Amino acid sequence: MEHLSHFAREFLKALRNLLPIAAVVALFQLVVFRQMPEDPLQLVAGLLIVGVGIALFLQGLDLSVFPVGKNLANQFTRRGALALLLPFGFAIGFAASVAEPALIAVAGQAELISEGRISSLILRLVVAVSVGLVLVLGILRVLRGWPVHRLLIGGYALVLAVTFVAPPQIVGLAYDSGGVTTNVVTVPLIAAIGIGLANSIRGRSALTDGFGLVALCVMVPMVGVQFYGIWVYAFGDPGAVPEPGPAEQTIPWVVEHLLGLAQMIRDVAPMVVVVLFFQYVALRHRLAHPVRVGVGFVMVLVGLYAFVVGLKMGLFPLGTQMAEQLIERGAPMLILLFALLIGFATTMAEPALVAIADQAQDVSPAGISATAIRLVVALGVAIGITVGVYRILAGGPLHYFIMASYALVILLVALAPKYIVALAFDLGGVTTSEVTVPLVTALGIGLAGAIEGRSALIDGFGLIAFASIFPIVSVLVYAMVLEAVSRRRKEPS
């Protein structure tokens, strides 16, 4: 009964996370378009299946991956076992990224739109290796006390330099891939490792040194994917997505779903192997509750599969349909208003953002409010998605918009109080949720596909990147305002 009530709570929480999206869509469908969406029952069924998938997935993580992973990180920290901590960081970063639902969704769309030239599997492997390597760098940063802003400024300078030589077909996808690497699976584990390390080392601050791992995990995949794109478009096989033949079309639905579930087992297997290897081989400790952990892994598998099925039924068609309706209206202001509202609504309900904001409030000596952070970040995401949609409507190279945005970020980093920098970049990495990413990706691709002269591959991707950049700006400005108010109060009247 306890597990059933836990599932019910997670399911209701997932539905609550979906509610803002449903409210915005309903507002536009009933008030603006004055019509019912196509196949409303299928859309509702898809959203409910997404909710069930998220609930199973999160409960499975709570039973298996999170307690085991956090316990491993704590044991490494207590022992001071650097030789084990760094391989663990790489392995858990790689395994969690490979299984990331949002990355699976974006990679699948990239393979489809590029007609098979970009491989979904290779793209996910490139991102996963990048996250693993940068997690090692992030752990070393905490151990050595390196200032995070220097790593971030140098890293993003490299990202922008590679953008100049990368093919335009890969640029938007690369920036989006960085934005989806830190999500439901990775954020809690990465944040726990960083804050745990900072708390265990004398002279480190949980706020200044504990945050920043998420930001680094967003940055480096952007470089890796752009290098992959350079190789693909210079030497790779053009490829093609095969059309399903008669035999494939007549596969019974039971067999089709069993094959899909088998693919999910392949996706989650690396994370299971990493956890069990370090638990039994590296630390030589038995699992405290092996049956519970096993049930948790099964729930992760089933939840991931239900999540993907629900996306195909609900959110992807919904995003494409909304884009087509908005384009048919020929009213750019309506499109921008939709982007603004959907960005704010989805971010306010993002569970990873709630968790990071609460942690920041707990460790902050500067009076940072968790509620204020969520509002500020949601506003940043709303503005970012709106800017990204404006770029699709108006045209123009993506990297010019990206460079201007990061130039603003670098200027604010130089002016903002240093205690907020790592947190601001981390918050930029947790704003794209398992619900937001598919809907925003479908919206961008739908808009680009419906506007003459736009390419779905070149122009359709990139919205997630803007949704990651502008929260950094809004949080840095928020901290600067707090500092100014604090100074004014201390001044003698």
What would you note in describing this structure?
- With 493 residues, the protein is mainly α.
- It has one domain (2-486).
- It is 81% helix and 0% strand.
- The chain contains 22 helices and no strands.
- The protein has helices at 2-32, 40-63, 65-79, 82-98, 101-113, 120-144, 148-165, 168-179, 186-200, 206-210, 213-235, 246-249, 253-282, 290-329, 332-348, 351-363, 370-394, 398-415, 421-429, 436-450, 456-459, 463-490.
- α3 packs antiparallel against α4.
- 52% of the residues are buried.
- The model is unreliable at 244-248 (pLDDT under 50).
Question: What tags apply to this protein structure?
Answer:
single chain, 493 residues, mainly alpha, 22 helices, 0% strand, globular
Write down the overall mean pLDDT.
78
Radius of gyration: 22 Å
Q: Helices and strands: which structural class?
A: mainly alpha
Tally of individual helices: 22
Poorly predicted sequence stretches spanning 5 or more consecutive residues: 244-248
- Portion in helices: over 70%
Task: Give a count of the beta strands, DSSP E runs of length 2 or more.
Answer: 0
Number of domains: 1
Global morphology: globular
Q: Distance between the terminal alpha carbons, to the nearest Å?
A: 61 Å
Taken in chain order, the helices and strands follow as HHHHHHHHHHHHHHHHHHHHHH
Note the main sheet: none
Beta content comes to under 5%
